[in-house]
Design a protein that fits this description.
The complex is a heterodimer of chains A (362) and B (353). Chain A is of the alpha+beta class. Chain A contains eight helices and 21 strands. Classes of the chains: A alpha+beta (362), B alpha+beta (353).
Chain lengths: 362, 353
Amino acid sequence: MAKIVLENLGHSYLPNPKGEHDFALKPVNLTWQDGKTYALLGPSGCGKTTMLNIISGLVPPSHGRLLFDDQDVTKVPTSARNIAQVFQFPVIYSTKTVRQNLAFPLECRGMAPAKIKQRVAEVATLLDLDYALDMPARKLSADQKQLISLGRGLVREDVSAILLDEPLTVIDPQMKFMLRRKLREINRQTGMTMILVTHDQSEAMSFADEIVVMKDGLLQQSGTPEELFSRPQNDFVGYFIGSPPMNMITLEPNLGLLCTAALNLTKPLPLESNATVYQMGIRPEHIVMAAKETNSIGMGKIIKIEHLGVDGIVTLELPTGVVIKAKTRKHTEMNVGNTMGISVCDEDALLYIDGTLSSSSR
Amino acid sequence: MLQIDHLTTADAKVSLDDVSFLFEAGNIYTILGRTGAGKTELLRALMGLNPLTDGEVKLDKENITKRPIRDRNMSLVYQQFINYPHLSVLDNVAFPLRRQGKKKAQAQALASTMLGTVGLGDFLHRRPSQLSGGQQQRVALARAMVKQSSILMLDEPLANLDYKLREQLREEFPRLVSDNEESVILYTTTEPREAMELGNTMIVMHDGKIIASGAPADLFANPPTKDTASVISDPPISFISGFVSNKTLYFGEGQIAPSDGLQLPPDGPVTIALRPNAIERGGDFSAKIGLSEFSGSQTIIHLDFAFGRAIMMVDGIEAFNSGDDLRISIQAEQMMLFAPDGRNITIRDNQDG
């Protein structure tokens, strides 16, 4: 088990990188505490897999250092790093039983048979797979197979961290829920650091104590799910975290204030600002709709209602043609064409200046 | 109009079991089911790719069961992005038209228009490999749509795309397929939210059968069976065993009288189904917190009761410690009841509800 430090760590696949754009991972400084859960989140090509491969030792970084418990492991080969990895597709020996699958990594290390038996039993209990120990691994469902892949890493007692590379991709939605819970329980019971790579923001939010959001090889924001949701540091994080994305409404400077004709909501114009774009960012979850105009900051006409089950997404057109989305559980009581009063708490309306969260909104 | 009667297959993996349905032109049908429910097998049987042991496929009342694939006037988009790597984007989309015998100039003109609809007007002369995953899938979609087939089938078309790209294409989907408004559109997915958002009609499959169909919001509110409720609920629905005796519903240490917005069935065992909105904080029941997860502006709490597990959601962001006890109440007007054979036997009491 280990604290992991990325010290000015970066990687370029080119021999002589000229500028920033030659880096698949632009140099970054991060510290991950022992025993916590982390998610590396971003779209395809954002550098998250490069970062994971550097940590596992599959890619030697071109710049910076990687430390496990203050030991420099930058040049240490994968086999000596004590990392367990789970991939997108289950990697199991399908002709072996579950028991044989779990025992194999220990047999390879020459552990005594009695000790192997004990470890396999412990891990099977942790995974709730006791009952399946003598079943052929191929008979298991996709989520159980992923647990076996994880278990093959867990049986080793020397594991520093578990790296999970999009392990829930092939799992059906409802089973994802259960598997995620299992992963968190294993983290709690073993105290092992877990790092999850994913493009799915909802998966990252529910799994991780802390999320690292990346785009184009550049760290965008690192923080708790709550911080990323309520205070996205830039417009990309506002878009990428949350579904639907954060509403962005353009503001115009006017007599020391930033305003919009769409809503009766203003922000003070920052002094000495020579920015070109001012926007108000509002989460769909923070928009409250009421049939009457009481306490509202504006009116919007419902142009679309999407039923997603317990929740619904309501698309509203504001007076100047600005379109925003609101998330609600009261969607079943609303109809397209209705005009709704809109309310938003002032602290939930964030000011973005040229795409970056204003210091006044932090 | 596409009619299937008693489609049955005997494939080794998943087989269709007496599937009948009537699909009408101009409608989008989402076919929802878990992995292995028979969704892909249904599409393949319609195409004539899987041999039938029984049943008929009729297109506009004409029996096409024995007709070869190429004469069926159907298009299929797969989960994997399948394009011709050696052809330009434009020629990829023009290809099926050329094969129909259209002149090159005409085929390219139609292909170009279709690529404009899917937002690839600026990429006509690129190779598919020079596009992102989302763009490659748009090429495959354009190639399927340009033929204006009577039946357009999409087999989990967004499954291999990034979350945000999926969100964007879902939003655009009605516009993307707008040129095929005369077609029957079939769209398979494992994601309840996607099925509800995109379909006019949602079809639920389970174990090789169609187990329910209807307007998405209605099916969600009133699933006819326990299996249907299970497949269409995300977050998962929780089932708890109970029984009715002397006009009271008993479960675990709890009981609910009929005056709470729910009429009770006759005495006997029932299955109680709870969605997250049926559980609220504060009340008579004691539950242990198994895990709390944060999701956007909500906190999802996995609860362990003496009598089972359930999931509740709390608005806002709040830290809950695993292992702590939580007092909760169960909202009778939000719960559903299922008979031992799986039928939905919920009757709401409108006077109180």
